[in-house]
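> example.struct
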């Protein structure tokens, strides 16, 4: 593990232990915004050669994960939440249009939930945003982008429900 990642993981641990809940996650997002202003630190954490989802660190006690993401071209992800977890998205390179949604109809394992658009905003290099448990969002990228994401748990091990736009309301 390189020094930048080691320092980040230890800072996240400290902030999340000392400030459990949403306040700690906001402090982690603020720390990421400062850290990503350093181009060398950003390049070390998320090299352009990283894949679409590279697990960089998983905390053995708290369970949070630090991931690097590189997207070579346009990509839109459908509306989703992070199930029982929270997530922090931090833009490293490029721009992401992030949309957030209000729940119209709950999802089940057999039927996608319905959502309506509530707001859209741009995430630019150095921006970090916390998505608490249950916040429905969807990123759209029109060009190559890179981001760092911190999840409260390893979401690759969690089955998530699906959501789609309610065409009658959007």
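> example.seq
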């Amino acid at each position: 593990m390189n020094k930048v990642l080691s320092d980040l993981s230890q800072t996240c641990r400290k902030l999340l232990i000392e400030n459990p809940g949403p306040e700690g996650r906001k402090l982690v997002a603020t720390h990421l915004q400062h850290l990503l202003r350093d181009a060398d630190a950003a390049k070390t954490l998320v090299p352009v050669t990283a894949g679409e989802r590279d697990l960089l660190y998983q905390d053995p006690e708290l369970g949070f994960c630090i991931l690097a993401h590189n997207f070579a071209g346009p990509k839109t992800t459908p509306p989703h939440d992070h199930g029982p977890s929270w997530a922090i998205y931090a833009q490293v390179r490029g721009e992401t249009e992030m949309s957030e949604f209000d729940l119209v109809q709950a999802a089940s394992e057999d039927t996608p939930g319905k959502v309506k658009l509530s707001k859209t905003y741009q995430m630019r290099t150095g921006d970090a945003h916390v998505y608490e448990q249950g916040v429905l969002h969807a990123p759209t990228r029109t060009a190559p982008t890179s981001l760092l994401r911190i999840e409260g748990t390893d979401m690759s091990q969690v089955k998530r429900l699906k959501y789609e736009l309610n065409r009658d309301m959007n």
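> remarks
The domain at 3-165 is CATH 2.60.120.10 (Jelly Rolls).
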